[in-house]
Protein backbone atom coordinates (compact mmCIF):
# COMPACT_ATOMS: atom_id res chain seq x y z
CA UNK A 1 0.00 0.00 0.00
CA UNK A 2 2.90 2.35 0.80
CA UNK A 3 4.38 1.87 -2.68
CA UNK A 4 0.99 2.15 -4.39
CA UNK A 5 0.07 5.41 -2.66
CA UNK A 6 3.51 6.91 -3.21
CA UNK A 7 3.53 5.89 -6.89
CA UNK A 8 0.15 7.57 -7.44
CA UNK A 9 1.57 10.84 -6.13
CA UNK A 10 4.67 10.41 -8.31
CA UNK A 11 2.33 10.25 -11.33
CA UNK A 12 0.59 13.42 -10.11
CA UNK A 13 3.93 15.18 -9.48
CA UNK A 14 5.06 14.35 -13.01
CA UNK A 15 1.87 15.73 -14.55
CA UNK A 16 2.15 18.92 -12.50
CA UNK A 17 5.84 19.44 -13.31
CA UNK A 18 6.86 19.36 -9.64
CA UNK A 19 10.10 17.38 -10.09
CA UNK A 20 11.10 19.67 -12.93
CA UNK A 21 10.40 22.71 -10.75
CA UNK A 22 12.66 21.32 -7.99
CA UNK A 23 15.49 19.71 -10.00
CA UNK A 24 18.90 21.34 -9.57
CA UNK A 25 17.52 23.97 -7.14
CA UNK A 26 18.80 22.58 -3.84
CA UNK A 27 16.55 22.70 -0.75
CA UNK A 28 13.37 24.75 -1.32
CA UNK A 29 10.42 25.77 0.87
CA UNK A 30 6.92 24.73 -0.15
CA UNK A 31 6.26 28.36 -1.11
CA UNK A 32 9.26 28.35 -3.43
CA UNK A 33 8.23 25.03 -5.01
CA UNK A 34 4.64 26.23 -5.45
CA UNK A 35 5.79 29.47 -7.02
CA UNK A 36 8.20 27.74 -9.39
CA UNK A 37 5.49 25.25 -10.46
CA UNK A 38 2.69 27.85 -10.53
CA UNK A 39 0.59 25.84 -8.06
CA UNK A 40 -1.36 26.33 -4.81
CA UNK A 41 1.05 26.14 -1.85
CA UNK A 42 -1.10 24.15 0.62
CA UNK A 43 -1.52 21.28 -1.86
CA UNK A 44 2.15 21.37 -2.76
CA UNK A 45 3.10 21.18 0.93
CA UNK A 46 1.00 18.05 1.46
CA UNK A 47 2.51 16.46 -1.66
CA UNK A 48 6.02 17.32 -0.41
CA UNK A 49 5.27 15.77 2.99
CA UNK A 50 3.96 12.58 1.36
CA UNK A 51 6.85 12.33 -1.11
CA UNK A 52 9.45 13.01 1.59
CA UNK A 53 7.94 10.35 3.84
CA UNK A 54 8.23 7.97 0.88
CA UNK A 55 11.85 9.15 0.34
CA UNK A 56 11.25 10.18 -3.26
CA UNK A 57 11.87 13.79 -2.26
CA UNK A 58 14.55 14.48 0.42
CA UNK A 59 13.58 16.43 3.52
CA UNK A 60 16.45 18.83 4.27
CA UNK A 61 15.01 20.11 7.61
CA UNK A 62 13.64 23.58 8.46
CA UNK A 63 10.69 23.17 6.10
CA UNK A 64 12.90 22.67 3.03
CA UNK A 65 12.65 19.90 0.45
CA UNK A 66 15.05 18.74 -2.25
CA UNK A 67 15.02 16.59 -5.36
CA UNK A 68 18.45 14.92 -5.62
CA UNK A 69 20.27 14.67 -8.96
CA UNK A 70 19.62 10.90 -9.00
CA UNK A 71 15.86 11.39 -8.67
CA UNK A 72 15.96 14.28 -11.14
CA UNK A 73 17.52 11.98 -13.77
CA UNK A 74 14.67 9.50 -13.28
CA UNK A 75 11.73 11.89 -12.94
CA UNK A 76 12.60 15.42 -14.09
CA UNK A 77 14.47 15.09 -17.37
CA UNK A 78 12.11 13.70 -20.02
CA UNK A 79 14.92 13.40 -22.53
CA UNK A 80 17.13 11.28 -20.25
CA UNK A 81 17.58 7.62 -21.23
CA UNK A 82 17.04 6.93 -17.51
CA UNK A 83 13.65 8.70 -17.49
CA UNK A 84 11.14 6.48 -15.68
CA UNK A 85 8.18 8.83 -15.81
CA UNK A 86 6.34 6.74 -18.41
CA UNK A 87 6.08 3.82 -15.99
CA UNK A 88 4.35 6.03 -13.43
CA UNK A 89 2.05 7.96 -15.75
CA UNK A 90 0.55 4.67 -17.02
CA UNK A 91 -0.51 3.81 -13.49
CA UNK A 92 -3.73 5.88 -13.19
CA UNK A 93 -4.91 4.52 -16.57
CA UNK A 94 -4.08 0.96 -15.54
CA UNK A 95 -5.84 1.27 -12.18
CA UNK A 96 -8.91 2.76 -13.83
CA UNK A 97 -9.20 -0.47 -15.86
CA UNK A 98 -9.70 -2.66 -12.79
CA UNK A 99 -13.53 -2.79 -12.91
CA UNK A 100 -13.38 -3.87 -16.55
CA UNK A 101 -10.68 -6.45 -15.83
CA UNK A 102 -12.96 -7.89 -13.24
CA UNK A 103 -15.23 -8.73 -16.15
CA UNK A 104 -12.33 -10.22 -18.12
CA UNK A 105 -11.69 -12.75 -15.35
CA UNK A 106 -15.31 -13.92 -15.80
CA UNK A 107 -15.58 -13.89 -19.59
CA UNK A 108 -11.97 -14.66 -20.50
CA UNK A 109 -11.91 -11.75 -22.94
CA UNK A 110 -9.44 -8.92 -22.35
CA UNK A 111 -9.19 -5.33 -23.58
CA UNK A 112 -7.44 -4.41 -26.82
CA UNK A 113 -5.14 -1.38 -26.74
CA UNK A 114 -7.87 0.86 -28.16
CA UNK A 115 -10.42 -0.28 -25.55
CA UNK A 116 -8.20 1.42 -22.99
CA UNK A 117 -8.61 4.88 -24.48
CA UNK A 118 -6.20 7.37 -25.97
CA UNK A 119 -3.75 7.15 -23.06
CA UNK A 120 -2.43 3.70 -23.88
CA UNK A 121 -0.84 4.78 -27.19
CA UNK A 122 0.60 7.86 -25.53
CA UNK A 123 1.95 5.82 -22.59
CA UNK A 124 3.70 3.24 -24.82
CA UNK A 125 5.30 6.14 -26.66
CA UNK A 126 6.89 7.57 -23.50
CA UNK A 127 8.06 4.17 -22.24
CA UNK A 128 10.36 3.34 -25.16
CA UNK A 129 10.63 6.71 -26.96
CA UNK A 130 14.02 7.77 -25.61
CA UNK A 131 15.54 4.38 -26.45
CA UNK A 132 14.38 4.77 -30.07
CA UNK A 133 15.75 8.32 -30.21
CA UNK A 134 19.08 7.64 -28.54
CA UNK A 135 20.03 3.97 -28.95
CA UNK A 136 18.21 2.34 -31.87
CA UNK A 137 20.11 3.93 -34.75
CA UNK A 138 23.51 4.42 -33.11
CA UNK A 139 23.88 1.17 -31.17
CA UNK A 140 21.21 -1.42 -31.97
CA UNK A 141 20.83 -1.43 -35.77
CA UNK A 142 24.63 -1.67 -36.38
CA UNK A 143 24.53 -5.07 -34.63
CA UNK A 144 22.39 -6.48 -37.44
CA UNK A 145 24.53 -7.98 -40.20
CA UNK A 146 24.66 -5.76 -43.30
CA UNK A 147 21.57 -3.78 -42.38
CA UNK A 148 23.06 -0.29 -42.07
CA UNK A 149 24.63 -0.36 -45.55
CA UNK A 150 21.39 -1.68 -47.00
CA UNK A 151 19.43 1.12 -45.33
CA UNK A 152 21.83 3.69 -46.79
CA UNK A 153 21.48 2.17 -50.27
CA UNK A 154 17.67 2.23 -50.11
CA UNK A 155 15.74 -0.57 -48.39
CA UNK A 156 12.06 -1.25 -47.81
CA UNK A 157 11.30 -1.52 -44.09
CA UNK A 158 8.24 -2.54 -42.08
CA UNK A 159 7.67 -1.96 -38.36
CA UNK A 160 4.87 -4.32 -37.31
CA UNK A 161 3.07 -3.26 -34.11
CA UNK A 162 4.52 0.21 -34.72
CA UNK A 163 2.36 1.98 -32.10
CA UNK A 164 2.64 5.73 -32.52
CA UNK A 165 5.53 5.34 -34.94
CA UNK A 166 8.44 6.81 -32.97
CA UNK A 167 10.91 4.04 -33.92
CA UNK A 168 9.88 4.05 -37.58
CA UNK A 169 10.11 7.83 -37.86
CA UNK A 170 13.58 7.83 -36.26
CA UNK A 171 14.74 5.27 -38.85
CA UNK A 172 13.05 7.16 -41.67
CA UNK A 173 14.89 10.36 -40.77
CA UNK A 174 18.24 8.57 -40.42
CA UNK A 175 17.89 6.76 -43.77
CA UNK A 176 16.07 9.08 -46.20
CA UNK A 177 16.81 6.87 -49.24
CA UNK A 178 14.79 3.99 -47.74
CA UNK A 179 11.00 3.66 -47.51
CA UNK A 180 9.16 2.74 -44.33
CA UNK A 181 5.80 1.11 -43.54
CA UNK A 182 4.21 0.97 -40.10
CA UNK A 183 1.50 -1.58 -39.27
CA UNK A 184 -0.71 -1.62 -36.19
CA UNK A 185 -4.23 -2.57 -35.11
CA UNK A 186 -4.69 0.48 -32.90
CA UNK A 187 -6.53 3.39 -34.48
CA UNK A 188 -5.48 5.69 -31.63
CA UNK A 189 -1.80 4.79 -32.07
CA UNK A 190 -1.98 5.19 -35.86
CA UNK A 191 -3.60 8.62 -35.52
CA UNK A 192 -0.73 9.73 -33.29
CA UNK A 193 1.75 8.15 -35.72
CA UNK A 194 0.26 10.03 -38.66
CA UNK A 195 0.33 13.35 -36.83
CA UNK A 196 3.99 12.81 -35.82
CA UNK A 197 4.76 11.91 -39.46
CA UNK A 198 3.06 15.04 -40.77
CA UNK A 199 4.85 17.25 -38.21
CA UNK A 200 8.20 15.90 -39.42
CA UNK A 201 7.18 16.01 -43.07
CA UNK A 202 8.47 12.43 -43.48
CA UNK A 203 7.49 11.61 -47.07
CA UNK A 204 9.13 8.15 -46.99
CA UNK A 205 6.74 6.76 -44.33
CA UNK A 206 3.26 5.20 -44.66
CA UNK A 207 1.14 3.83 -41.84
CA UNK A 208 -1.33 0.98 -42.32
CA UNK A 209 -4.18 -0.31 -40.20
CA UNK A 210 -3.28 -3.97 -40.37
CA UNK A 211 -6.78 -5.48 -40.37
CA UNK A 212 -7.93 -3.38 -43.35
CA UNK A 213 -4.56 -3.08 -45.07
CA UNK A 214 -2.45 -6.14 -44.18
CA UNK A 215 1.18 -6.93 -44.94
CA UNK A 216 1.79 -7.69 -48.64
CA UNK A 217 1.35 -11.28 -49.83
CA UNK A 218 4.71 -11.42 -51.59
CA UNK A 219 8.34 -10.53 -50.72
CA UNK A 220 8.80 -6.79 -50.32
CA UNK A 221 10.62 -5.97 -47.07
CA UNK A 222 14.39 -6.03 -46.60
CA UNK A 223 14.06 -5.29 -42.90
CA UNK A 224 11.17 -5.96 -40.52
CA UNK A 225 11.13 -4.77 -36.91
CA UNK A 226 8.80 -5.73 -34.07
CA UNK A 227 9.34 -3.77 -30.88
CA UNK A 228 7.77 -5.06 -27.69
CA UNK A 229 4.56 -6.24 -29.33
CA UNK A 230 4.62 -9.93 -30.36
CA UNK A 231 3.57 -11.08 -26.87
CA UNK A 232 0.63 -8.61 -27.01
CA UNK A 233 -0.86 -10.11 -30.17
CA UNK A 234 -3.88 -12.38 -30.17
CA UNK A 235 -2.40 -14.45 -33.02
CA UNK A 236 1.37 -14.03 -33.00
CA UNK A 237 1.85 -17.20 -35.09
CA UNK A 238 -0.15 -15.68 -37.95
CA UNK A 239 1.87 -12.47 -37.74
CA UNK A 240 5.13 -14.44 -37.94
CA UNK A 241 3.89 -16.22 -41.09
CA UNK A 242 2.72 -12.93 -42.63
CA UNK A 243 6.15 -11.40 -41.95
CA UNK A 244 7.89 -14.41 -43.53
CA UNK A 245 5.77 -14.05 -46.70
CA UNK A 246 6.36 -10.31 -46.90
CA UNK A 247 10.15 -10.56 -46.44
CA UNK A 248 12.71 -10.91 -49.22
CA UNK A 249 14.84 -14.08 -49.14
CA UNK A 250 17.91 -12.37 -47.66
CA UNK A 251 15.96 -10.06 -45.37
CA UNK A 252 16.40 -9.44 -41.64
CA UNK A 253 13.90 -9.35 -38.83
CA UNK A 254 14.86 -7.40 -35.71
CA UNK A 255 12.82 -8.54 -32.70
CA UNK A 256 12.68 -6.83 -29.34
CA UNK A 257 10.76 -8.65 -26.63
CA UNK A 258 10.85 -9.07 -22.87
CA UNK A 259 14.01 -10.55 -21.37
CA UNK A 260 12.25 -13.01 -19.10
CA UNK A 261 13.22 -16.53 -18.07
CA UNK A 262 11.61 -19.67 -19.54
CA UNK A 263 9.80 -20.64 -16.33
CA UNK A 264 7.80 -18.89 -13.64
CA UNK A 265 10.11 -20.38 -10.98
CA UNK A 266 13.13 -18.76 -12.61
CA UNK A 267 11.37 -15.42 -13.00
CA UNK A 268 10.47 -15.55 -9.31
CA UNK A 269 14.17 -15.27 -8.44
CA UNK A 270 13.90 -11.64 -9.52
CA UNK A 271 10.98 -10.78 -7.29
CA UNK A 272 10.54 -7.09 -8.12
CA UNK A 273 11.03 -7.66 -11.83
CA UNK A 274 8.52 -10.53 -11.72
CA UNK A 275 6.01 -8.42 -9.77
CA UNK A 276 6.23 -5.64 -12.35
CA UNK A 277 6.01 -7.94 -15.37
CA UNK A 278 3.21 -10.24 -14.25
CA UNK A 279 1.20 -7.26 -12.94
CA UNK A 280 1.69 -5.28 -16.15
CA UNK A 281 0.53 -8.38 -17.97
CA UNK A 282 -2.87 -8.38 -16.26
CA UNK A 283 -3.39 -4.67 -16.92
CA UNK A 284 -2.01 -4.63 -20.44
CA UNK A 285 -0.17 -7.44 -22.26
CA UNK A 286 -2.28 -10.48 -21.37
CA UNK A 287 -5.39 -8.36 -21.70
CA UNK A 288 -4.46 -7.42 -25.27
CA UNK A 289 -3.37 -10.97 -26.11
CA UNK A 290 -6.81 -12.27 -25.04
CA UNK A 291 -8.83 -9.45 -26.58
CA UNK A 292 -10.31 -11.76 -29.22
CA UNK A 293 -11.91 -15.17 -28.75
CA UNK A 294 -9.24 -17.86 -29.12
CA UNK A 295 -6.41 -15.38 -28.47
CA UNK A 296 -3.01 -16.96 -27.77
CA UNK A 297 -2.80 -15.17 -24.39
CA UNK A 298 0.99 -15.14 -24.17
CA UNK A 299 1.22 -12.12 -21.86
CA UNK A 300 4.27 -10.13 -20.81
CA UNK A 301 6.43 -13.18 -19.96
CA UNK A 302 5.10 -15.28 -22.84
CA UNK A 303 8.11 -15.07 -25.14
CA UNK A 304 11.32 -15.98 -23.36
CA UNK A 305 14.10 -16.91 -25.78
CA UNK A 306 13.21 -20.63 -26.27
CA UNK A 307 9.51 -19.86 -26.88
CA UNK A 308 10.38 -17.08 -29.31
CA UNK A 309 12.86 -19.31 -31.15
CA UNK A 310 10.13 -21.93 -31.57
CA UNK A 311 7.49 -19.40 -32.66
CA UNK A 312 9.65 -17.94 -35.42
CA UNK A 313 10.96 -21.36 -36.46
CA UNK A 314 7.39 -22.65 -36.86
CA UNK A 315 6.67 -19.58 -39.01
CA UNK A 316 9.43 -20.45 -41.50
CA UNK A 317 12.51 -18.60 -40.20
CA UNK A 318 15.72 -20.66 -40.11
CA UNK A 319 18.30 -18.40 -38.45
CA UNK A 320 18.00 -16.98 -34.96
CA UNK A 321 20.65 -15.04 -33.05
CA UNK A 322 20.43 -13.22 -29.74
CA UNK A 323 22.17 -9.86 -29.85
CA UNK A 324 24.42 -8.41 -27.21
CA UNK A 325 22.52 -5.22 -26.41
CA UNK A 326 22.09 -4.20 -22.79
CA UNK A 327 18.64 -3.24 -21.54
CA UNK A 328 16.96 -3.61 -18.13
CA UNK A 329 13.79 -5.22 -19.52
CA UNK A 330 14.19 -6.25 -23.15
CA UNK A 331 16.11 -8.88 -25.12
CA UNK A 332 17.12 -8.38 -28.77
CA UNK A 333 17.23 -10.88 -31.63
CA UNK A 334 18.24 -11.04 -35.28
CA UNK A 335 16.09 -13.48 -37.23
CA UNK A 336 16.52 -14.43 -40.87
CA UNK A 337 14.76 -16.79 -43.31
C1 LIG B 1 3.39 -2.24 -26.19
S1 LIG B 1 2.84 -1.55 -27.68
C2 LIG B 1 4.37 -1.23 -28.51
C3 LIG B 1 4.22 -0.21 -29.59
C4 LIG B 1 5.53 0.21 -30.27
N1 LIG B 1 6.19 -0.88 -30.94
C5 LIG B 1 6.45 0.86 -29.26
O1 LIG B 1 7.44 0.24 -28.87
O2 LIG B 1 6.15 1.98 -28.82
C6 LIG B 1 2.21 -2.95 -28.59
C7 LIG B 1 1.56 -2.58 -29.91
O3 LIG B 1 1.22 -3.77 -30.62
C8 LIG B 1 0.02 -3.49 -31.35
N2 LIG B 1 -0.59 -4.75 -31.79
C9 LIG B 1 -1.27 -5.66 -31.07
N3 LIG B 1 -1.69 -6.67 -31.87
C10 LIG B 1 -1.25 -6.39 -33.12
C11 LIG B 1 -1.35 -7.05 -34.40
N4 LIG B 1 -1.98 -8.20 -34.53
N5 LIG B 1 -0.76 -6.46 -35.47
C12 LIG B 1 -0.11 -5.28 -35.36
N6 LIG B 1 -0.01 -4.61 -34.18
C13 LIG B 1 -0.56 -5.15 -33.09
C14 LIG B 1 -0.78 -2.68 -30.34
O4 LIG B 1 -1.85 -1.99 -30.93
C15 LIG B 1 0.29 -1.77 -29.77
O5 LIG B 1 0.40 -0.58 -30.51
List keywords for this structure.
337 residues; 15 helices; binds S-adenosylmethionine; Rossmann fold; seven-stranded mixed β-sheet; alpha/beta; 2 domains; Arc Repressor Mutant, subunit A
Which helices and strands appear, and what pairs or packs with what?
Elements: H1 2-16, H2 18-22, E1 28-29, H3 30-37, H4 41-53, E2 58-61, E3 64-66, H5 69-75, H6 85-96, H7 98-107, H8 119-140, H9 147-153, E4 156-160, H10 166-174, E5 179-184, H11 187-200, E6 205-209, E7 221-227, H12 236-246, E8 247-258, H13 264-268, H14 271-289, H15 305-314, E9 319-322, E10 330-336
Parallel strand pairs: 4-5, 4-7, 5-6, 7-8
Antiparallel strand pairs: 1-3, 2-3, 8-10, 9-10
Bound molecules: S-adenosylmethionine.
Morphology: globular
Which residues sit in consecutive blocks of at least 5 with pLDDT less than 50?
Answer: none
Rg measurement, Å = 21 Å
**Strand line-up of the largest beta sheet:** 6-5-4-7-8-10-9
Mean pLDDT: 96
**Approximately how much beta-strand content do the residues carry?**
15-25%
The main β sheet shows up as: 7 strands, mixed
N-to-C span:
49 Å
Number of strands: 10
CATH architecture of the largest domain: 3-Layer(aba) Sandwich
Helix content: 40-55%
Give a structural overview:
The chain has about 325 residues and is an alpha/beta fold. It has two domains: about 1-90, Winged helix-like DNA-binding domain superfamily/Winged helix DNA-binding domain (Arc Repressor Mutant, subunit A, Orthogonal Bundle); about 110-335, Vaccinia Virus protein VP39 (Rossmann fold, 3-Layer(aba) Sandwich). The protein is about 50% helix and about 15% strand. It has helices spanning about 1-15, 20, 30-35, 40-55, 70-75, 85-95, 100-105, 120-140, 145-155, 165-175, 185-200, 235-245, 265-270, 270-290, 305-315, and strands at about 30, 60, 65, 155-160, 180-185, 205-210, 220-225, 245-260, 320, 330-335. It has a seven-stranded mixed sheet with strand order 6-5-4-7-8-10-9, with helices on both faces. Strand 5, helix 11 (about 185-200) and strand 6 form a beta-alpha-beta unit. Helix 3 (about 30-35) packs across helix 4. The protein starts with a helix and ends with a strand. The model has no long low-confidence stretch (mean pLDDT about 95). Bound molecules: S-adenosylmethionine (SAM).
Amino acid sequence: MVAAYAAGLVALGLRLGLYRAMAGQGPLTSNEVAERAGLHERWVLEWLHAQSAARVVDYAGNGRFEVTDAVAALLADESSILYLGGSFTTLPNHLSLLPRLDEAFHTGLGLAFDDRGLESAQDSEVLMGNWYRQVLISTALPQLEGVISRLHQGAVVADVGCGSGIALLEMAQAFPTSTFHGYDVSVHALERAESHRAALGAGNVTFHRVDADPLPDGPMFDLVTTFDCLHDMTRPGETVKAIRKAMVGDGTWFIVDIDCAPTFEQNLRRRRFATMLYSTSVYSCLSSALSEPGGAGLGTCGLPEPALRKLVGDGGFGRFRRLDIEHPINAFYEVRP
